[in-house]
Write a structure and sequence with these properties.
Number of helices: 16
Oligomer: single chain
Strand order of the largest sheet: 1-2-4-3
Radius of gyration: 24 Å
Distance between the termini: 51 Å
Low-confidence stretches: 1-16, 78-89, 173-179
Helix content: 40-55%
CATH class of the largest domain: Mainly Alpha
Number of domains: 3
CATH architecture of the largest domain: Orthogonal Bundle
Order of helices and strands: HHEEHEEHHHHHHHHEEEHHHHH
Structural class: alpha+beta
CATH superfamily of the largest domain: Intergrase catalytic core
Length: about 375
């Protein structure tokens, strides 16, 4: 556990007025004096969370995450007083990450993929304190094994393998990372909210802008990144459709625009008068961030008393499931969601209640005991 490791650096923590302590079995927290530049660096650590009520950051409970946090502290404050340990001195990855980023841009990788792959590349090198040319296949295996040991999902591990494979072309051939066994994807079912829960969720949101964006995600089956970057010109109110520009896989698609949602939309437009982006951000010329929408959703769930482990993406899952339950052909649902394969859309048949309502529950035969 990394908390044994924290005890070893406790004198360093005290000197720098930093409190690092166990948060839960799966996370540790860090209370750090405010530094604008450091905040931007911390947000590059995968899995971080900010807790405004306690004014602390929390991170996944792995030594890799703690090492990365300490490295950022060294970089921001010029070394921790009394550390005297060269193992934690940061290495210069800037030129290597810049080159990697340019290569992915040239290959038209999505912004989200570039960001994810760059974070993985940085973590790999920081983990071993090695430059890319020094990383070996055994290093990669140890890195992935540590991620897997910390209960990372199969999807996370597969993304890490793809990122490393792109970042280290020198490992191609006998030591190609794709030769490693890729774990099968977890067969988890999507979290779906009932229509009653959707209504309670939306009624719990008082801010008109926030109510509108959550309503749009559910009524059109959008991804949160798609909803945040919708432009006014992408909405065709006369045809009752929305055009999603460069969605996942850089594909355009059209989806439904609810006539009931149009009334809410018109009230929102009259109130906020957005210019380019449908949902503008705090700074001029920007759109609302996906993280803001996520926070709005989480607050609404709490206020509505929804106990399911739902995320904003659950609204998209609910859209698809409710369409299926009302008899919409699954091929149309696939097109509305922008799924490449019908197999992806078929998962909603496992959470739809339609196929279950025809089954008689054997407990019903015991009604005489009440």
């Amino acid at each position: 556990m990394i908390f044994d490791y924290i005890i070893e650096i406790f004198d360093i923590v005290i000197v720098m007025h930093i409190e690092i302590r166990p948060d839960t079995n799966e996370r540790f927290s860090a209370k750090i004096p405010y530094d604008a530049a450091l905040v931007n660096s911390i947000k590059r650590i995968p899995g971080y969370s900010w807790h405004p009520d306690r004014k602390v950051w929390s991170f996944p409970n792995t030594q890799m995450h703690l090492d990365m946090l300490l490295t950022m502290l060294y970089d921001a404050w010029g070394g921790l007083v009394g550390a005297g340990d060269a193992d934690y001195l940061p290495i210069d990855l800037g030129p290597h990450i810049d080159r990697f980023q340019r290569e992915m841009l040239a290959k038209k990788y999505s912004r989200k993929t570039i960001s994810s792959y760059c974070r993985t590349a940085e973590l790999l090198c920081e983990y071993f304190q090695k430059l890319p040319s020094e990383i070996t296949r055994d290093d990669v295996i140890d890195f992935l094994a540590d991620i897997s040991e910390k209960a990372a999902s199969a999807s996370t591990i597969n993304v890490a393998i793809s990122a490393i494979d792109a970042f280290l072309p020198s490992l191609k051939g006998d030591v190609r990372t794709t030769a490693l066994t890729r774990p099968k994807k977890d067969r988890s079912l999507p979290v779906v909210l009932s229509r009653e829960e959707i209504l309670a969720l939306l009624n719990a949101v008082e801010n008109l802008k926030h109510k509108t964006v959550l309503s749009l995600i559910y009524s059109s089956g959008l991804r949160v990144s798609e909803a945040s970057s919708i432009k006014i010109g992408d909405i065709d109110r006369y045809r009752g459709m929305i055009c999603i520009r460069c969605g996942k896989g850089r594909k355009d698609r059209t989806t439904l625009l609810s006539s009931s949602f149009l009334r809410l939309l018109q009230r929102y437009l009259d109130t906020y008068n957005p210019r380019i982006w449908l949902f503008e951000g705090q700074n001029n010329g920007t759109h609302i961030s996906a993280r803001t929408i996520q926070h709005v959703f989480a607050a609404a769930c709490k206020k509505a008393g929804i106990l399911k482990k739902a995320t904003v993406h659950s609204l998209r899952h609910s859209f698809a499931t409710h369409l299926l339950e009302q008899g919409t052909d699954i091929r149309y649902i696939q097109e509305l969601l922008g799924h490449k394969s019908p197999t992806t859309t078929m998962v909603y048949t496992h959470v739809s209640k339609v196929r279950l309502t025809t089954i008689r529950n054997p407990f019903d035969d015991l009604s005489d005991i009440f």
